[in-house]
Amino acid sequence: MDHDPFLAIGLGLAVGGGLGVLGGIGLGLSPAASRITSIAIELFRPIPPVAVIPIALLIYGFGIKMEAAIIAFTCFWPMLLLTQAVVSSVEPRLIEVSRILELSPRKKVMSIVLPAAAARIVTALRLTIGIAFIVAVTTEIAVNPFGLGHAMMISQMEMRPSFMYAYISWLAALGWLINTGLLMIQRRMFGAMGLEVTQ
Amino acid sequence: MNRRLVDALLWQFGAIAFACAIFGLWALITHLGMVKQIFLPRPDDVFVTLWHQLTQGNLLELTAATLKRMLYGWVIASFFGVLIGALVGMSPSARAWITPTLELLRPLPASTLLPNGIALYGLDPNMLLAIIAFGAIWPVLLATVQGFATIEPRLLEVSNILGFGRLSFAWKFGLPSAMPDVLDGMRLSLTACLIITVIGEIVTAQDGLGTTIILAARSYRSVDLFAGVVLLGVVGLLNNLLLTWLRHWLLPWKRS
Q1: Has residue A29 been placed in a domain?
Q2: Whole-Å CA distances, B57 to A128, B38, B62, B63, B205
Q3: Do A46 and B237 touch (CB under 8 A)?
Q4: Does the beta-carbon distance from A138 to B115 stay under 8 Å?
Q5: What residues contact A111, with CB distance under 8 A and at least 6 apart?
Q6: Do B203 and A142 touch (CB under 8 A)?
Q7: Number of C-beta neighbours around residue B118 at 10 A
């Protein structure tokens, strides 16, 4: 349990990614909202996630909350922008159909927009999970006395290189597994749909 | 046409107003004392401190040190990324042999190499630079492989007919045709460079913005911390502008 960054990743991804998808759907459906927020997004998006590490440290201290907050911040932006891009490129005729059927906004999102955009939102999620993993390990190495990254840092300080290299190999294997696993799940679920990279 | 111009200006104005409103909200919350100053300082304090530290303190030097490290790392990563990427991308057999290894190494977070580097070389600035370059090479490398692998086959035929060697093919046909991919990779790589630079400074205690903000956080100097974060945001913004400009300049045929 102590060596497990996945709880923090799950928590951060749920909060940051969830907000990102919601915001992305809103911005993708309403050109007015996306134009109004464009400058604010351009201003805040380039803040590197590492700049948030000290802020989270200050607010939460060490532990899982701080790590989850950093991951949430990191996951928010790619999910927001990729979802916005995906939703705004949904076939306009489908949107017209929803207008003709006079669907409520909620119904429109649930039964028209989300099914049309799902495959590519999952692609965005796959890219974001990879980033979340990197940020989690990085946070642990830099400041958080918690998880795999920190265990690795400690084994270096204790001059136990065999442990250190074991952790590096394990992290490399984990990163590869996450990548390949998600790719496989995606292929199984959606076939070749949405596999093209939406950067 | 005039009406469209007015319309665009109005939207632009609205967008600026929205961004200002966020800062206004920040000012309002902090001035009303809804959040403790130690967690979220007042924006005016932050900007005054930022200006003060930049003009009278040593913040400018520290920023320059971070920027230098980031740009050196980026240049090294881009150079070797394009070089290796071109070699691998041009030969199908090299692709088949080397790509699996690259795919395995790529998801390894660059920060995991820091303990490794410290154990081998100690807290050395060049060690940090090498790790920054290594961590940032992947986006460029993979994008270059991709770009060279998808060159229009007829271009290869053209260059064969013209009697070009492989080197001049790579330079005259390969690189220009892979350039859009390479530049996309270089954009991601620059972002990675900034992140790894700051992390590396935190872990190896080199002088720079990373050390400055983490020390500010550890001693609860939240105004200094936020000033540093604002500065890092500005660096990120400038990086974006740099890449947009580079794209505009290097890819004249893709200007919209």
Answers
A1: yes
A2: 38, 22, 10, 12, 19
A3: yes
A4: no
A5: A98, A103
A6: yes
A7: 20
Q: Phi and psi (nearest 5°) for A25?
A: -65, -45
pLDDT at A194: 54
Query: B-contacting residues of A 143-172, CB under 8 Å?
Result: 143, 149, 152-153, 155-156, 159, 161, 164-165, 167-168, 171-172
Output the CA–CA distances (angstroms, integers) from residue A168 to A9, A60, A122, A165, B30, in the order listed.
19, 28, 28, 5, 43
Nearest Cα to B52, choosing from B235, B223, B232, B252?
B223
CATH of the domain at A121: 1.10.3720.10
Average pLDDT of span A83-104? 85
Scan residues 54-83 of A and list those with Cβ closer than 8 Å to B.
54-55, 57-59
Would you say residue A191 lies in a domain?
no
Q: Is A65 exposed, middle or buried (0-12, 13-18, 19+ CB in 10 A)?
A: middle
| Domain of A102, in residue numbers | 5-147
Residue with tokens 């006079």: A102
Count of domains observed in chain A: 1
User: Within a domain: residue A182?
Assistant: no
pLDDT bracket for residue A108 (50, 70, 90) = confident
What is the SS3 assignment for A192?
coil
Identify which of A45, A43, A72 has the alpha carbon closest to the alpha carbon of residue A56: A72
Give the whole-angstrom CA distance, residue B79 versus residue A106: 50
Tokens matching residue A173: 């294997």
Which tokens hold the place of A77? 């932006």
Q: Which residues of chain B have pLDDT under 50?
A: none
Number of H helices and E strands in chain B, helices first, is 11, 0
Tokens (6 digits) for B184? 């996309």
Structure tokens at A198: 């939406």
CA A140 to CA A131: how far, in whole Å? 14
ipTM of the complex: 0.79
Both structure tokens of B180 = 């859009």
Length of chain A in residues, anyone? Answer: 199
pLDDT class for A16, splitting at 50, 70, 90? very high
Is residue A139 domain-resident? yes
Closest CA to B243 of B178, B190, B197: B190
The pair of three-digit structure tokens given for residue B73, joined into one six-digit string:
């790392």
**C-alpha closest to that of A78 among B191, B180, B255, B242:** B191
Would you place residue A149 in the very low, low, confident or very high pLDDT band (cuts 50, 70, 90)?
A: confident
Strand, coil or helix: what is A160? coil
Tokens of A42: 């351009």
The pTM (predicted TM-score) of the whole model is 0.83
